Amino acid sequence: MIIAIAAIGMNNELGKDNQLIWHLPNDFKRFKTLTTGHYIIMGRKTFESFPKPLPNRTHVIITRQKNYTAENCIVVDSLKKAIAVCPKDEDVYVIGGGEIYNQSIDFADKLEITKVFHSFEADTFFPEIDITKWKLVSEEFHAKDEKHAYDFCFQTYVSKQ
User: Fold this and answer.
1) Rounded distance, CA 61 to CA 53, Å?
2) Containing H/E element for 27?
3) Which parts of the chain span the membrane according to its record (predicted)?
4) DSSP H/E element including 7
5) Most exposed among 8, 111, 114, 151, judged by the fewest C-beta atoms under 10 Å?
């Protein structure tokens, strides 16, 4: 199953200057829980935004740079090739950035979204979730607290196709 996982603001904001624009520890925990042990597909800029590769995950990096290499990672030049190198019988997570989400939304079987209830200045956005193609199957609200500056909720969508 191909699963796109993202945290997005009220206007589908993902980030600015190749960085997240909020800090939500419970979102990080959920991301880690869901993606650990799986293949994760990302664009080069998303990969380079990490201080180091994420532990216990197989990184598949999409880039148009011809001789790009990253230690212990799989590097390909298209989403189609990224999907092809992943196991067919396992969950595979698409983790960004904006262009990779745009390319993958039509391939995805499921969306794991953290909706942040605030608007942010951003330069990267998640594609619009078309409710004629996606069904919301679970939603879990979290109020802001001392560790979370914003209200947010975890949402799971499945493809209607």
Assistant:
1) 11
2) helix 25-35
3) none
4) strand 2-8
5) 151
Model pLDDT, residue 126: 97
Q: Which residue spans within 33-146 are E strands per DSSP?
A: 39-43, 58-62, 74-76, 92-94, 110-116, 124-125, 134-142
Omega prior to 97 cis, within 30 of 0: yes
Which domains, ranges and CATH numbers included, belong to the chain?
Answer: 2-159 (3.40.430.10)
Q: Of 31, 28, 22, 27, whose CA–CA distance to 118 is shortest?
A: 22
What separation in angstroms does the CA of 80 have from each of 31, 42, 100, 110, 146?
Answer: 23, 12, 11, 17, 42
pLDDT reported for residue 86: 97
Of 12, 34, 27, the residue nearest 151 (C-alpha): 27
Burial code (b: 16+ CB inside 10 Å, e: under 16) for 84-114 equals eebeeeebbbbbbbbebbebbbeebebbbbb
| Separation CA 130–CA 114 (nearest Å) | 16
Query: 77, 64 in Cβ contact below 8 A?
Result: yes
Cα–Cα distance, 68 to 44 (Å, whole number): 9
Q: Which amino acid is at 158?
A: V
Ranges under pLDDT 50 in the chain: none
